Every structure is written in C-alpha cells, then in structure tokens.
Amino acid sequence: MAAVASMMPMFGQQISSKNDMVPDWLGQEVSTGTTIMAVEYDGGVVIGADSRTTTGAYIANRVTDKLTPIHDRIFCCRSGSAADTQAIADVVAYQLGFHSIELDEPPLVETAANLFRASCYRYREELTAGILVAGWDRRKGGQVYSVPIGGMMVRQPVSVGGSGSSYIYGFMDSNYKPGMSKEQCLEITATALSLAMERDGSSGGVIRQASISEDGVERRVILGNQLPKFSTH
Amino acid sequence: MALSNVNETPAAGFNFDNAARNAALQGLFDAGQAPKPLKTGTTIAGIVFKDGVVLGADTRATSSEVVADKMCAKIHYISPNIYCCGAGTAADTEKTTDILSSNLTIFSLNSGRNPRVVMAVNILQDMLYRYHGQIGASLILGGVDCTGNHLYTVGPYGSVNKVPYLAMGSGDLAALGILEDGFRADLELEKAKELVRASIHAGIMSDLGSGNNIDICVITRQGVDYIRPYQVSQYKDNRKIRYKYPAGTTPVLTEKVVPLKLEVVQETVQQMDTV
Q1: I need a surface site. Which of A120, A136, A178, B156 has the fewest CB within 10 A?
Q2: How many CA atoms lie within 13 A of B78 on its CB side?
C-alpha cells in the first residue's frame, strides 16, 4: 500500500443520484457501525463483537464476523468502513506474516498494533477505521491495543469501540475490575455487547466472542435468543 | 507468485483519472444533468445448496425509466466453475467481470487448474477497493471448487461478505424476504432452483427496475447448467399491426444507374513460404 495520497477531493456518492429508481441506501458505503470490545486477563485476552453490517438503513449482512485473525495468536476487531477495515487487515496480516517468517518467531501484539497504526495514521484522511488489536505473546502475555479513527495507538486493559460503545462506557467503568478470570471476562463482554446491541440501531444480530491465550483460540457464538436479558426488555 | 495480467499491473495507489474526467464532463453539461449511465436496476440472488450453488437474475436493463434491454444477461461467466451476477452500473459490471475472467483464464493456463472462488473474490476486492467506489459494481460470486461450494458478495467499495444466501440490486429486499423464509441448509436441486426463482420473481413483482424473464445458473462439481430463460415473463406484448412494409409501398418515381468504372492499376502476388 505504498500509495501517494496526492489529490484528495471527496467525490461523494457517485453511484446513486436523486431521481433514480435505485433506492438511496444502495449507494451508501457499507459500514460496520458496530460494537466491539476487548478485555485483558492474566494469560490472555477475550474479544467480542456484534454481527451487523449496514449500508445506510439496510442490513447488508446480519451474521458478519468482525473478529479477524491477523496471526495465530493475534486478532483484530473491526469497526468503521467494511471495505477499509478489510483492506487494512489484509495488508497488516501480510506484513505481520512476512515479519514473523523473517524473525522465525511468533510476532508481538505490539508489532501488529504498530503496523495497524502506521497504515491508519498515514492514510488517516482517506480511511474510516476504528480497530482493536488483541492477542497473546510470550513477552507481555495478553494485550489489548486500541487504534481508533485518526491513527492513535494506546494499550488499555479493557477497550470498547464502534458506534454502540457510547452506550456502555458507564457499564464498563462501573463493572470492570482488574484481575478478572477468563470466564468473568467472557461474561462481562457478553453482557456489555448485549446492552449496546439493545440500544444502538447499527449493532445487532449475534454476539461473536473469542478468547486467545498461549493454548490457542477458542471461538464462541451467542445466538439472538440466547442473549443475556435485562429488566427493561 | 506474480499473477499474469492481461492488462499491465496498475500503478500503486488510487487512480482518479476517470473521476477527474467525469467532473470535467459535468462542467460541459452545466445547463442540465450529464447523461446518466445505464443502470441495471436489478434483482439478483444466489444460494448454496447441497451439491453446489444456484444463481438467479432478472433480465431487465433500464436507462432511467425506459427499459433499454429486455433480455439482458446479468449472470456473467468467470471460469468454468465460477459465475458472477452483477448489479449496479451495467458497463462497470460487464467490464469488471470480463477483466476478471481474462485474468483467471491466464491463471488456469499457467497453472493447469480451475481457479478457486476465493481467488476471484480477492482479485475483485483489490480492484474495487483501489477505485474507491468509483466503479459502481455490486457483484454476487458463486462457484464450486476443490474446497467446497461458495457464495460471496463484493460491494462497490470493496467489502466482501461470505454468506450461504444473498440477494442484491434494487429488488433485493423483496427477494431477501423469500430467501430468509425459505432457505434451509443443504437443499435439494429442484427446491433450490424453485427458491431462487421465487425470490427473483418477488423482486420483479415489487420493483420497477426489475422485470421480464428470469435466468438461472446451477453450478455443481459435475458442471454448469445455465438456463436462460428459466421462466419467461407472462406479460408479453401483442403487437396489433405489422411493421414490415411490402415492396412497392413507397412509389419509385425515377431510377438512375451509374456504373463505377474501376481499372486494375497494379497487381502483385506474393507467395507464402510453406513447408
């Protein structure tokens, strides 16, 4: 992706126009408009996401997998433009794989996060991508790095992202305690995502979770009728 | 492995030449709107069934409110085991699928095998992302390869979704309703074809931009069955008068014949060397 971002006028939506028989939402860019989160625990990380991809008001994919593997023990959670995040994840997976082969060693999560940051910051004007990088490596164990829109990178013990994250900052601030076990992390992730999906129109579907540790990756899906329920509904 | 491309490897980064051209053209037509591209205004659908993939499409191509083509082919050949339905701007879907098909043919000749569906998807995704949405092509790719039966959708901005059933185009809401209701995993062939037919039919009935006949394409390990048309529209026009005029309808008043005299100026014969 050695692009020279020279001229950058935004041409807007040229695919649909006003008096067309094609409905307006079809011209809009596909957005993951999402809720994602990642939590560190001693020995690994737990990541979770909803499964809704929207084009305007239409749900283009109700069973999306937003937890994308970058390497054996490193995943990223994608939010923002579906095309941008898929492209960036592809590029970083390639760069990281190459780097890992050169080193003849599993790569560090911090390296992966830096690669994401490099792309997201350099092309910040053209991209809409909010990414959580999470994984396990031998040096620092489970780590979560947040690379939001704009290309900042910061390590956090717990991080939420996407349009639905606004609704669960309060929940996370009051319910997260450092030193939780893997099961507690899975539970708090499921609860938080369920709350966000209830309130945010752009999040919904099923909850996908994964836990990453030295032993490997375990994936889980919580279907719509199995979501945690709350008193308001 | 470097992929042999029919066209040269494109320069790195985004190429906005055509967007600049469009902006310049917009200036020329400042009195009104620039001429609109032909859009297919379509219903396309695809499902994965027990033995393969079924793709379906309507056959109407519209130019604003006029039907430009009543028997448009929206299911494009990509390779012997992969077909692609296209919605969006007709020229973009045609050209994109043509380019993809050429490149995959070269790959097949080089490697001696049929391409995998995921390869076609990756090439499409790269190309559409590079053009940043300027190519208005929403594609449904379906095919069967050694790893199984696959159905993907690629959006105009380059986003890819892999799903067991899909509908795209302006009639997709109606079609998706039928698919959501009727889809089961591992359907039999006849039920699968009927489900796709019903979903395209729903799109045709509920959307002005879709209509006329229904094409179905069934891809399995054994081969491809491209049924065009699978269902013919029951609304056929009955022309009341004939438009063929018999000779003599227009009276001939005078006739003048002028022979053209041609002289042979020079004649050369060159023998080809044959072994």
Answers
A1: A178
A2: 31
Out of B42, B96, B97, B153, which one is annotated catalytic? B42
Backbone angles phi, psi at B13, to 5 degrees: 90, -170
Residue A169 and residue A156 in contact, taking contact as beta carbons nearer than 8 Å: no
- Distance in angstroms (rounded) separating the CA atoms of residues B210 and B206: 8
**C-alpha angle B49/B106/B151, rounded to 5°?**
15
* Contacting A residues, span 125-154, partner chain B, CB-CB under 8 Å: 126
Q: How near does any CA of chain B get to the CA of A133, in Å?
A: 20
Q: Please give the ipTM for the structure prediction.
A: 0.75
Tokens of B141: 């790719």
CB contact under 8 A, A64 and B160: no
∠ CA A62-A66-A71, nearest 5°, is 150
DSSP states of B90-134 = HHHHHHHHHHHHHHHHHHHHHHSSPPPHHHHHHHHHHHHHHTTT-
Give helix B172-182 / helix B189-206 axis angle, nearest 10°: 150
Provide DSSP, A49-78: E---EEETTEEEETT---EEEEETTEEEEE
Res. B55 pLDDT band, cuts 50 70 90:
very high
Rounded Cα distance between A36 and B254, Å, is 84
Gap between the Cα atoms of B100 and B96, Å rounded: 6
**Residue keyed to tokens 């109606």:** B174
